[in-house]
Amino acid sequence: MSLTINRDRLLSEIEALASISEAEPPVVTRIVFSPSDLKARGWMKACCEEAGLTVREDAVGNTFARWDGSEPAASVVGTGSHIDAIPNAGKYDGVVGVLGGLEAIQALRQSGFRPKHSIELLIFTAEEPTRFGIGCLGSRLLSGTLSADAARKLTDNGGATLDEVRREAGFTGELEQVKLPGGYYKAFIELHIEQGPLLERQQIPLGIVTKIAAPASLRVLIEGSGGHAGGVLMPDRHDALCAAAEMILAIESAARTSGAIDTVATVGICDVFPGAVNSIPSKVRLSVDIRDTDLQRRNIVMRTIEAACHSISAKRQVSTHNELLNADSPADCAPAIIEALSQSCRRHELKFLPMVSRAYHDSLFIARIAPVAMLFIPCRNGYSHRPDEHASPEDIVRGTLVLAETLATVSR
Ligand code: HGY
Ligand code: MN
Ligand code: MN
Asked: Which atom of ligand 1 is nearest to the CA of 129?
C-alpha cells in the first residue's frame, strides 16, 4: 500500500483551526461550547463532509465522522482527539489527532483502500477540564465512566449546568443515549503531541504509548475569618490565603517525596475571596491536579495531601473541606495495536520509543470499552498548554502516515 499524506492541506487546516480562538494568535483559547468552540465544530464538520464522511453528533456534542466499511454492521475502528483548548494554549494539543486522523482517512480513501470495519473520526467534547472541572467529559460519558445523572450535576463557574449549556449549543438529546453499546469499537488509536520532552531529547521521531497515567483532581475549600487589613492584628488573624499557601507547599512536597519521579501534583487555580488588597482573605478555593503512573502510589499521595490540609487547618484555626472531582485508574494500551503501530514504524525504518503518557487523554476512557493505543510525536522543548507549543511539519506528517497505515491494518 502506498499512501500519500497531503502535507499542505494538513498544515493549512491546522493553521485555519488555530485562527478560531477567543484570543489573538499565536494564543489559542477554545473553551467547550464557547462561540469559538462552536465555530470550530462547524468548520470541522464541513471538512469531514467535504472528505466524504457521514457526520453525526451525540447529546453532549461528541462528533463522529464515519467512513463505512464493507461490513457496516461490524465493530468500528476509531481515531481522533479533541479541539477544545484551555486558556492561553497552543495550536497542536488535540488538533494533531483530529486533523491528522482526518488526513489519515483521506489518504486511505485516495489510495483505493477499502476497510472491512468502518472507520470513525471522533472529536470528543470537553477533553479539557476548564469549563466543568472534569476532563474527558465526552469520553467518560461514551464509556459509561461518568453517568448521565452525575454529568447533569456539573456546572461551570457562572453556575450554568451542563444541560443548560449543551442545549443552548444545540445538543438536545438525552445524556443517557451517549453511552456506546458494548463492543462498538474494535480499536481506538489516538495521535497526539507528547506534551513532554523525552522524544525530542532522545531525538526519536515517534512514541508508542504503553500506559496512560492515572489522573485525579480535587478542590480544597478553605474558610478563615477575614476582616480589615489594618484593624486585625496578626495574632488575631485566621487568614485563609496564608493557610492555602502552606497547603500548596505541602501538596508540592507530597509529590516530591512520593519515592518516584512519576508522581506529579499541581495547584493550577487559586481563587481568593473577597480579593481586596485591604481585606484579609476569608475564603480560598484551590484546584489540585494529582497524577501518577502507579495507582496505589497516587492514592497514598492523595491521602498525604488530605492529612496535611487538615493539620494545617487545625493549626491555623480555619475550616477546610476537600471535594474530590475525579480519581481515575491508569490504562494499559492494547498489545495488538501497539504491534500494528510498531510494524508501521519498522516498515519505514522509523525509531520509536515505548513510553508512558503522563498527560491524560480521551483514550484513557475509551480504553474502558475498547483496545486502545496512542502515537506520540515530539513537541519542541516538551512545551504544551502554552502558545509556543510546536510540532514540526515533518513530525506531524510522519505521525499521520503511521496512523493511516495502522488504521488500515486494524480495519481489515
Ligand atoms: O491535562 C491533561 O493531561 C490533558 O492535556 N487535558
Ligand atoms: Mn490538553
Ligand atoms: Mn490533549
From this structure: 6
Closest atom, ligand 1, to C-alpha of 361: 4
The atom of ligand 1 lying closest to the CA of 135 is: 6
Pair 172, 160: CB distance under 8 Å: no
Nearest CA residue ID for atom 5, ligand 1: 359
Q: What is the CATH number of domain 7-213+330-411?
A: 3.40.630.10
Q: Residue 1 has what pLDDT? A: 80
The residue type at 70: S
Among 96, 128, 384, name the best residue to mutate to test ligand 1's pocket (greatest count of ligand atoms within 8 A of Cβ): 128
Ligand nearest to the CA of 196: 1
- pTM, two decimal places: 0.94
In the chain, CATH 3.40.630.10 sits at 7-213+330-411
C-alpha dist (Å) from residue 200 to 203, 205, 220, 352 = 5, 8, 36, 12
**Which amino acid is it at 3?**
L
Please, which pLDDT band fits residue 219 given cuts at 50, 70 and 90?
A: very high
Q: Is the CB of 32 under 6 A from ligand 1?
A: no
Q: 360 CA distance to ligand 3 centroid (A)?
A: 7
Atom of ligand 1 nearest to the CA of 215: 3
Residue range 215-327, CATH number: 3.30.70.360
pLDDT attached to residue 2? 87
With 0-12 / 13-18 / 19 or more C-beta atoms within 10 angstroms meaning exposed / middle / buried, residue 96 is: buried
What stretch(es) of the chain map to CATH 3.30.70.360? 215-327
pLDDT tens column, 37-65: 999 999 999 999 999 999 999 999 999 99
**Ligand 1 pocket mutation, candidates 30, 88, 385, 386, criterion most atoms within 8 A of CB:** 385
Residue pair 360/216 in contact (Cβ under 8 Å)? The answer is no
